[in-house]
Amino acid sequence: MKRLAYVVVMATALVAVSWTPAAAQTAGTGWEVVAEPYLMGAAMSGAVALRGRDVDVDVSASDIFSNLQFGAMGMLVAKKGNWGFGADAIWMALGTTVRNTNVDMNQGAFAFYGLRRLGPAADVTFGLRVNTLQGALDFKTLGVAVSQDKTWVDPIGGLSLRTAAGRPLQLRVYSEIGGFGAGSKFAWQIFPTLAFHVSDRVSLDVGYRWLDLDYSKGEGSERFTYDVLTQGPVAGVGFRF
Fold this sequence. Notes:
Blueprint: H1 2-19, E1 31-40, E2 43-50, E3 53-59, H2 61-67, E4 68-80, E5 83-97, E6 101-119, E7 122-139, E8 144-162, E9 169-178, E10 186-197, E11 202-217, E12 224-240
């Protein structure tokens, strides 16, 4: 899957480069701001280790919703001319049982990035994501409980592609890679969405998101590992100002 992510990101890079000459076209002179709260039907698969103890993770979207204690998600993008900035926040508090092990996990991913307009259909992004996890494992058959918190920062770079604006439907694809050993060993994201513009100011957006983090730190009883793919459908409402 990581190889697939790399291929997709490189393909979108080639498409974006083809739009670069169009950057000379005049961009808007005022601020364009989009704010979007959204919901994600997330499923999670991979492996987690807390205090050196491993547990496989394979949780469906329905399991997450049934064990979701709290969740908040939203994004903000502001552009002026050829430059802009954005933020994307995900927070989930989960509790579930996997193979006789109680798993409690609070997960946050907070991305902050700048962007540069390459053309009417493409932007390049650059920034960082702050990942924070608060995990607890209760191995019921062993009578052992462990907990561990970890926060790390991933440098990220991405590409955002879109079809022409001003139409009832607009397709957007965001792709990203990051980590590079500075935080995660490797991180990637692919996020296509389809926007239904109900007015000049409001759109209904649906899509699908893949976000993969591969992070490991420490050894022995202090080993912490989070190698998990979070994926699922996304639905939100975009507001333009």
